[in-house]
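Module 6 notes. Inverse folding takes a fixed backbone as the condition and produces residue identities as the prediction. Think of it as a translation problem where the source language is geometry and the target language is the twenty amino acids. Below is one complete input and output pair. Work through it position by position during the lab.
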């Protein structure tokens, strides 16, 4: 069998020249002490390959029509052979790609590998990060459910605030003045053709730059980068401490990449793809749109900032972050590479992770959004099963108060927590607030009968701490 395989390989290689094409990449020297920190770039490429393969498979059944997209996704998920697994792998492959490109960027920054002569390696990597996030956002709309549709409306509103060309950008995103079939077709073309084509092109450029300049050696304190002598010292270093990428340097990439693909497959099998929301319906105002997890931090940032500066933040934050990342090599392309000699680089990475992680946690909880499915207050929380307090609790549920207010862990977090409101407001103050409303709270004076107001106040007045407890 081994002889047969080798014979087939030699015949194929002789006719096609695979060795000639892959030889420069497989045989180029890499630093011998490059360890597991160097696997994130190849893992990102593998995640992208997973996206291409699963995306092509899904495209065989997906119909990019506003009247059929939702139904075809339901068919893929529930009826098509391996459809659920393919959707899951495509979703978790996107998450893996974002994680790996982010880790690769952080590792490159910490190791100072953006310095001379690899400034363009860094720039193309930053652009690849932006394209990866664009792939994730455009792919979300293709689910064509309520959440996806409203997310695009929010994106169009954000684009509309750009000076001078805002209106044009918003209409370009929507494919017209409102969201519809043209929007879906446009996002399908961008997600399936435009961004992947750009990714493939920039990945090719990025890999060529890696081959041209070599993989950066692990930084050593006290050995700064000097553009005048670096290339000569780097080649001497490889002659002494380098080894061929294949097979000596590639085995870690293979092990880590295999583990990544296995993890994606296991998540797709046992967890499955994201659940589809209701079909898009512009008349439903009770939607709670939010992007996938890797953009959730930005969603939280926009929700938390004051409305007066929202437009500036929408435009400036992405522009400032992108610009700062691109100009990093221009600000410092020589000097120390070791993170121990560049403590500010460690601080930047740690603060970025903490900031994004904190905003992500807040975005998951989304206290600014009403909870449209809070359920009903259980009798154990109400405390009684009849009488004015019980009737007031039923009104509290029926009038949607529980959507925004929290009572002993039940309800939403948009409004104040009313668990112990009976200790904080008198009954007269409660009547005034219910009748007249307040900030973001409608006035219920014309909606409730006097007896209903009394029952509601009786329930709220019963929300007190137990005696002896703080």
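Target side of the pair, the amino acids:
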């Amino acid at each position: 069998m081994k002889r047969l395989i080798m014979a087939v390989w030699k015949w194929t290689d002789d006719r096609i020249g695979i060795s000639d094409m892959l030889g420069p990449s497989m045989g180029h020297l890499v630093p011998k002490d490059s360890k597991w920190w160097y696997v994130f770039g190849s893992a990102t490429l593998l995640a992208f390959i997973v996206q291409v393969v699963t995306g092509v498979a899904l495209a065989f059944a997906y119909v990019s029509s506003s009247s059929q997209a939702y139904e075809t996704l339901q068919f893929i998920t529930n009826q098509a052979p391996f459809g659920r697994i393919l959707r899951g792998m495509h979703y978790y492959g996107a998450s893996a790609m974002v994680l790996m490109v982010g880790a690769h960027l952080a590792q490159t920054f910490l190791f100072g590998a953006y310095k001379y002569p690899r400034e363009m390696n860094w720039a193309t990597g930053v652009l690849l990060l932006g394209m990866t996030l664009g792939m994730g956002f455009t792919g979300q709309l293709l689910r064509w459910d309520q959440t996806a549709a409203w997310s695009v409306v929010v994106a169009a509103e954000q684009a509309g605030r750009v000076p001078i060309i805002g209106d044009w950008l918003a209409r370009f995103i929507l494919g017209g003045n409102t969201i519809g079939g043209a929007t879906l077709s446009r996002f399908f073309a961008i997600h399936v053709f435009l961004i992947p084509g750009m990714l493939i092109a920039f990945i090719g450029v990025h890999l060529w730059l890696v081959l041209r300049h070599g993989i950066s050696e692990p930084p050593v304190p006290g050995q700064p980068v000097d553009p005048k002598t670096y290339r000569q010292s780097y080649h001497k270093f490889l002659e002494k401490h380098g080894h061929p990428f294949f097979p000596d340097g590639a085995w870690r990439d293979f092990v880590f990449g295999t583990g990544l693909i296995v993890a994606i497959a296991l998540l797709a099998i046992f967890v499955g793809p994201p659940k589809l929301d209701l079909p898009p319906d512009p008349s439903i105002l009770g939607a709670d749109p939010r992007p996938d997890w890797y953009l959730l931090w930005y969603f939280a940032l926009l929700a938390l900032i004051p409305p007066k500066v929202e437009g500036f933040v929408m435009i400036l934050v992405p522009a400032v972050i992108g610009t700062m990342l691109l100009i990093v090599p221009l600000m410092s392309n020589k000097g120390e590479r070791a993170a121990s000699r560049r403590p500010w680089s460690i601080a930047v990475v740690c603060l970025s992770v903490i900031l994004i992680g904190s905003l992500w946690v807040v975005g998951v909880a989304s206290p600014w959004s009403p909870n449209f499915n809070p359920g009903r207050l259980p009798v154990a929380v109400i405390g009684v099963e009849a009488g004015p307090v019980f009737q007031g609790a039923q009104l509290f549920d029926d009038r949607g108060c529980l959507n925004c207010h929290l009572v002993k862990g039940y309800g939403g977090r948009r409004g104040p927590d009313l668990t112990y409101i009976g200790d904080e407001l008198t009954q007269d103050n409660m009547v005034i607030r219910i009748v007249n409303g307040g900030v973001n709270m409608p006035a219920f004076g014309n909606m409730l009968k006097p007896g209903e107001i009394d029952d509601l106040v009786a329930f709220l007045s019963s929300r007190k701490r137990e005696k002896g407890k703080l």
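Reference fact for the lab report: The first helix runs from residue 2 to 16.
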